[in-house]
Amino acid sequence: MTLGETKLFSLLKAKMTYHAERQPILAQNMANIDTPGYAPKDFKKPDFEKAVMLESSRLDMRATQPSHIKPRIANLSHFKTEEQDPVHEITPVENGVVLEEQMMKIAENKAQYDIATNIYKKNMDLFKIAIGKNS
Amino acid sequence: MDMINAFHIAGSGMKAQSDRLRVISQNIANADSVANTADGTPYRRKVLSFKNVLDREIGADLVKVKKYGFDKSDFRMKYEPGHPAANEEGYVKYPNVNPILEMVDMREAQRGYEANLNVIEVSKTMLQQTIGLLR
After folding, report:
1. Which end of chain A is more exposed for a tag (fewer CB within 10 A), N or C?
2. How much is the pTM?
3. CA distance linking residue A44 with residue A30, whole number of Å
């Protein structure tokens, strides 16, 4: 079993993927603060166990000849995007994005990503100590 | 969606806000542009609106300007009988630009621009941290 397939690192990878994929969604909300008729989007509550299983069972198409076509799948995401009901307010042009709420989500997303990164670093340091390498 | 797409999305948001700022500055600069003759029309205030465009490569909605239009409200009338553009009653048509409204619009455009800039900063920091894991 490779290092990446241990439970800890699979979970961390799934968590980091979740936050890395959430960032463009939130960026899209932010870019549309003045667009009429736009409702903010976000992910549904994630199920990390399922995401770990999907992550390990996904098959990527390999291209060994120059004529093999690699599919351009832009939206291959394990997490479902949904439009949120505007809880706070809708402007007269029906834009539901609240700036403060989105900023808070972005900050929270980044903090969670930092947590995942730091846990990863600590564990890698532990492994390095175990194999006797001076970091 | 990759996190790098957050840059593209925020970039399109910034471009939309700066287009808006361009229109605002045009309006402010021409707030007193009257016609030369009595039957000419002065400067008419311009407005713009945003729309979402799905970018297939990224798989996200980018912000673009939907159209530039004109503000259909009436021109201001000022009593200046000696002006070359005065009509029979001595009134001159002035542009329908309200500088206070334009200033407020400008603040909003600035807020939108800074919000998108912040998104780019946060995404960049997250990416840098990820790359720092390699060390």
Report:
1. N
2. 0.73
3. 18
